[in-house]
Amino acid sequence: MKFTIKQTIMVLTCCLLFVGCKELDTTNNNNPDRDGVLSSGADLKTVLNGAYLSWWRAIHGEYPVIALGVTADAYGLAWEDFGAQRMGKEPRTAYNNRSTESNEYQQIAEVPWYGCLSAVSTANDVLSALDNGVSIDKDGPLDESIRAAAYLLRGLSWGYLGLIFDQGLIADENTDLNAKISFVDYKEMIAAAVTELERAIRSAGIAGIDFNHTYFNGVTMDSKQFSDLCHSYAARFLAQWPRTEAEYQTVDWAKVLEHAEQGIREDFGPMADGNFWASYHRYTFDQTGEGPFWARVDQRLVAAMDPSQPTRYPEVVANGETPLSSTMASSADERLSTDFVFVQIQHFPADLGEWHYSHYKHNRNRTDPGFAGDGATMGAMPAFLQADNELLEAEALLNLNRLTEAVGLINAGTRIIRGQLPAIDNRALAPEVMLAIQYERAIELFNAAPMGQWFDRRRFGPRLGSQSVDALGGLQMGTPAHLPVPADELKVQGELPYNFGGSLDPEGIERVF
Q1: Burial code of 443-454, b = ≥16 C-beta within 10 A, e = fewer?
Q2: How many CB atoms lie within 10 A of CB 485?
Q3: What is the number of other CB atoms lying within 10 angstroms of the CB of residue 90?
Q4: Which of 76, 140, 142, 320 falls 20 to 30 Å from 432 in CA-CA distance?
Q5: For residues 13 and 354, what is the distance between their CA atoms, to the nearest angstrom?
């Protein structure tokens, strides 16, 4: 039986509450979480564990990552699974936000929406319980550690709602849930997320040496590591929120730099557990046990590494052979051979769109064994690389006209260390440096930041026709640049459903009813 996200959230919540709280007295049937179930410090940890899992699955599962990766020309995937086929049509069509659509298609928006709201709701319950006397050490460092974890969870959830949707909902532990909560736009969501991450950093500092964060499966963080991660996510949200080139010019780059300079200095990725903690990687990473039929590296990214390759796969010839089947790409970038695998055969039917074709899959683990596991049963699931933080720092420096420092940071990073590419000349102009940043973000961060290419393409360049795409430029015309609030949620709020993208919305940012 296949569960919807709403059903999954209910099942997970019920299981966690039963396991962790079956002995507890729950006398208030109107709000059992806050007033009854959460009656001890151990309960707080139990429900937070479930809430972190809700957030993880909302952002790092096959919904929405696969469909948004395909529509951003990060992956080629022709199948209907995960909504990929419809989101990858050329020319692009609108995301049809209707409750009459298939469950498969609706989950593109529903999974991140309801998963993040579920995580926020639990964080609110935990903070309310702390405010009302539930405690581990009577407002000591252990209680402060719980607060920090709840603040981080709200910050991550609000931040991704701001990155993915055109509007969201902000409710904290003091919000009256019986009153209508108004939507706020994505810029307000991002601002609230960054404020919450800064709040988490302060609480971790108060907890000090007693701080211990273990809510990401297989990852234990002390106060410094936790704060570093908060800073990195703040930098990501502040840099990647723009939907257009014009909005890109309004980014607070000083704030991005402030956070990135204090960000992570090691890769971050929870561990797959063969049960609940899983990721989209099983469908985008070669040789993960899911078979050879899943996502290819989009041809635009192959052309980024080898400019002699076309950016859009040529149409198949009459006998069914593919024009590039005997033509391996070549590149000065060593990562073409270390991180990517040539596959001669195509597994997608041509009538589903030859633009999905590519002869390359991603398999960085061949030469970088610690990069990722299988996305399901074992190994790390990369979510935020140190290289990502360094590139955000370099981008901020560039936009603050500190060109020499930006060049120095890029030359000290993965461009040379892993790609073995020539150093950027200190006399390089800003556009050349910007292109180097875009390239590293596309190649080095591939499969290491969910929906990263979607967030980047919409802010880096103008929209492009499907027949005239370049390697590192913008989204295709008609690609949704953010998603609408799910139709069922709008119905609850008494609002009409709306779409983004398609021929009526070439920028992908204007509501179409």
Answers
A1: bbbbbbbbbbbb
A2: 22
A3: 18
A4: 76
A5: 43
Q: What is the pLDDT of residues 98-151, one digit of tens each?
A: 999 999 999 999 999 999 999 999 999 999 999 999 999 998 999 999 999 999
* Integer Cα distance of 224 and 221 in angstroms: 8
What b/e sequence results for 385-405 when a residue is b if at least 16 CB atoms lie within 10 Å of its CB, and e otherwise?
A: bbbbbbbbbbbbbbbeebbeb
Instruction: Identify the residue whose tokens are 């500092």.
Output: 205
Distance CA 151, CA 146 (A): 9
pLDDT value of residue 20: 33
pLDDT tens, residue by residue, 297-351: 999 999 999 999 999 999 887 666 778 988 899 999 999 999 999 999 888 999 9
pLDDT, residue 11, reads 41
Six token digits for residue 123: 């964080």
163 phi and psi angles, rounded to 5 deg: -75, -35
pLDDT at 8: 39
Pairing of strands 340-342, 360-362: antiparallel
With beta carbons less than 8 A apart as the criterion, state whether 319 and 339 touch: no
Give residue 18's pLDDT band: very low, low, confident or very high (50, 70, 90): very low
The residue type at 59: I
How far apart (Å, rounded) are the C-alpha atoms in residues 102 and 55?
A: 23
Say what the pTM is. 0.93
| CA dihedral sign of residues 82, 234, 227, 445 | positive
Amino acid at 243: R
Return phi, psi of residue 483, to 5°: -100, 155
The residue count of the chain comes to 513
Tell me if 373 sits within 8 A of 60, measured CB to CB: no
Paired with 342 in beta bridges are 360
